[in-house]
């Protein structure tokens, strides 16, 4: 199966949207439902840094890494490695769920030991249906896009490591199959996995899904239970208007807000894609074990492509890639082609890339870096979130400038993407009329000729509306 650009975008959004939901909710965990602004603020009882993810994403990382290495997540040896990583993580993690902590504490770091411990806890308490396996399940979907039956097996096998309860395994199967479906089609539909359950279980879950669609996330007062966590996440998605609104709705539901938002993030990321995730979130999202947003995207890409990410992407065959000029309206913004990364002016300390680059293509001294997914094609299917991406990229440049950074904005040849975003930056933040901005930016770049889809987008008053003073 060869994936389209849009499918790659959606697959790349799964883990990062999950982490963003997690980090967004971290500052509100255990609090009541609320209305109003939702900020990626950190803090709370565990003193999270702004943008830091919690145990939800941390427990997904060993699964993602195993999948990126091409391993079969159903293999007992692979499951042993995942459990060993969890046991090691849990020794220093600031927050480990009550049920998961009970399972992992004091066991041999093997899958069989974890399953035995999970069963003991279930037998002792009479239940073990916490949301701790659903919260981490998203990467399983990436590993089995071509094999839905294998996906269902792997989702349940990994759930069973810490959660003996059948509800937990069912929820992971349903959610992973929904993520797979969203990546492939762009549609969020949690019912697509019902056929993978036994008929009586499918009927039960169908009723639960129906109930979720009549309520809001705040209505699920026991969202630490896997059933209500799934219902709350699905409620946020069916009521949400886009990725950001969905995750904010999930957080406003309160209580186990970070976990519900992380669960919702995996599916809404698969629905809307990486290109719908705000650059402001991407800049600060991070967490155990020392990873950032770009690392999640690269690991996700490695799962899809079945090979490691290149350290450098060779664009030599594309023609002239040496362009490097200052923005005609802001000397603190440099405009360039990808070759400019090898010849950066010393004052440049931030890079915004509008094309695919290798993991080591940006000089190591650059600490502020963003990769914005923007495809230089006119087909709307290639850029399903075009207006959002253009505005977000322009606003990211403005934010970096407001922080005192000198920015390189580049694509492959500074031909279409770079002049478009550079002109929009001037229009939105420097009060330059868009036609003049595009003309003067294009005059400064020797190969500038933005494609007609980008030009058409720039004619939208809502897109080019000045935001000076509000960067």
Automatic annotation (TrEMBL):
Family: Belongs to the ADP-ribosylglycohydrolase family.
One Gene Ontology term of the molecular function aspect: hydrolase activity
PANTHER family the record matches: ADP-RIBOSYLGLYCOHYDROLASE, ADP-RIBOSYLHYDROLASE ARH3
Annotated cofactor note: Binds 2 magnesium ions per subunit.
Residues given in the record as Mg(2+) binding sites: 54-56, 256, 258-259
Tagged with keyword Nucleotide-binding: no
Pfam families in UniProt: ADP_ribosyl_GH
Domain of life: Bacteria
Keyword terms of this UniProt record: Hydrolase, Magnesium, Metal-binding
Annotated transmembrane regions: none
Names of required cofactors: Mg(2+)
InterPro entries from the UniProt entry: ADP-ribosylglycohydrolase, Prot-tyrosine_phosphatase-like, Ribosyl_crysJ1, Ribosyl_crysJ1_sf
Protein name (database record): ADP-ribosylglycohydrolase
UniProt KW Metal-binding keyword: yes
């Amino acid at each position: 199966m060869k994936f389209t650009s849009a499918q790659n975008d959606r697959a790349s959004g799964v883990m990062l949207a999950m982490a963003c939901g997690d980090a967004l909710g971290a500052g509100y965990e255990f609090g009541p439902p609320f209305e109003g602004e939702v900020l990626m603020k950190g803090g709370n009882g565990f003193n999270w840094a702004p943008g830091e993810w919690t145990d939800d994403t941390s427990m997904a990382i060993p699964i993602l890494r195993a999948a990126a290495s091409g391993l079969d997540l159903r293999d007992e040896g692979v499951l042993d490695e995942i459990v060993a990583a969890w046991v090691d993580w849990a020794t220093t993690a600031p927050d480990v769920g009550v049920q998961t902590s009970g399972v992992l504490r004091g066991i041999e770091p093997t899958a069989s030991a974890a399953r035995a411990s999970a069963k003991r806890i279930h037998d002792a308490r009479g239940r073990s249906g916490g949301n701790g396996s659903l919260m981490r399940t998203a990467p399983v979907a990436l590993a089995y896009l071509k094999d839905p039956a294998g996906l269902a097996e792997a989702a349940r096998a990994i759930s069973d490591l810490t959660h003996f309860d059948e509800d937990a395994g069912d929820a992971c199967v349903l959610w992973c199959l929904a993520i797979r479906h969203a990546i492939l089609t762009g549609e969020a539909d949690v019912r697509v996995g019902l056929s993978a359950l036994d008929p009586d279980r499918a009927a039960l879950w169908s009723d639960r899904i129906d109930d979720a669609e009549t309520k809001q996330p705040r209505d699920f007062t026991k969202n630490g239970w896997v059933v209500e966590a799934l219902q709350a996440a699905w409620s946020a998605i069916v009521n949400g208007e886009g990725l950001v609104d969905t995750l904010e709705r999930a957080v406003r539901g309160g209580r186990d807000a970070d976990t519900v938002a992380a669960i919702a993030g995996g599916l809404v990321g698969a629905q809307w894609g990486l290109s719908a995730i705000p650059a402001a979130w991407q800049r600060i999202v991070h967490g155990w074990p020392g990873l950032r947003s770009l690392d999640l995207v690269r690991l996700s890409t490695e799962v899809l492509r079945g090979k490691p990410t290149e350290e450098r992407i060779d664009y030599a065959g594309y023609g002239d890639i040496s362009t490097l000029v200052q923005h005609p309206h802001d000397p603190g913004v440099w405009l360039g082609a990808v070759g400019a990364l090898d010849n950066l002016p010393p004052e440049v300390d931030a890079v915004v890339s509008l094309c695919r680059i290798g993991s080591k293509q940006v000089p190591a001294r650059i600490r502020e870096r963003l990769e914005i997914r923007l495809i230089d094609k006119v087909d709307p299917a290639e850029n399903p979130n075009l207006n959002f991406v253009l505005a977000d990229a322009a606003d990211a440049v403005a934010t970096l400038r407001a922080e005192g950074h000198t920015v390189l904005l580049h694509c492959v040849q500074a031909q279409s993407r770079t002049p478009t975003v550079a002109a929009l930056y001037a229009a939105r933040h420097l009060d330059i009329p868009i036609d003049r901005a595009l003309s003067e930016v294009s005059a400064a770049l020797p190969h500038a000729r933005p494609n007609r889809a980008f030009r058409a987008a720039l004619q939208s008053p809502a897109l080019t509306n000045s935001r000076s003073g509000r960067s």
